[in-house]
Predict the structure of DoxX family membrane protein.
Amino acid sequence: MDNLAGLMILLFLAITFLQSGYDKFTDFQGNVSWLKEHFAGTFFDGKVELALKTVMVFELIAGLLSIVGMIEMSISGGTTFGKYGAVVSCVTLLMLLFGQRLAKDYDGARTIAIYFITAVLGVYLLQ
C-alpha cells in the first residue's frame, strides 16, 4: 500500500477501459452504426470497423494490464505492469482524441483530455 494513488489510478483505468472495451464487444454493430455516421466524410469513412476493433483491443489490453499492475503492486510492490497499463491507456486515449478531433467533435475531445491527464499522472507516479 505504499503507492495508494497509483493503485487508485490503475483501478480507474481498469474500470474505464474494461467497461468501454466490453461495451464495444457486446454491441459491436450498434457502435459501428453510430460511428459510421460520426465519421462520414472523414479519413475513417469506410474504415470504421477496423478502427473500432483496433481501439477495442487497445482498451482491453490497457484494462487488463492495469489489473495485473494492481495485483503486482499489492503482492511485490512492483510497478512494471501498472506502468505499461498507464502507457497503453495514454496511447488508446490519443487514438480516441485523434478520432474525435477528426470528426470535429470538440466536446468529446475535451472529455478525453480529462481521462488523458489521469493516465499521464499514472505514468508519472508508476515510474
User: Anything to note?
Assistant: The helical segments are 4-26, 28-38, 48-75, 80-102, 106-125. Residues 4-125 form one domain.
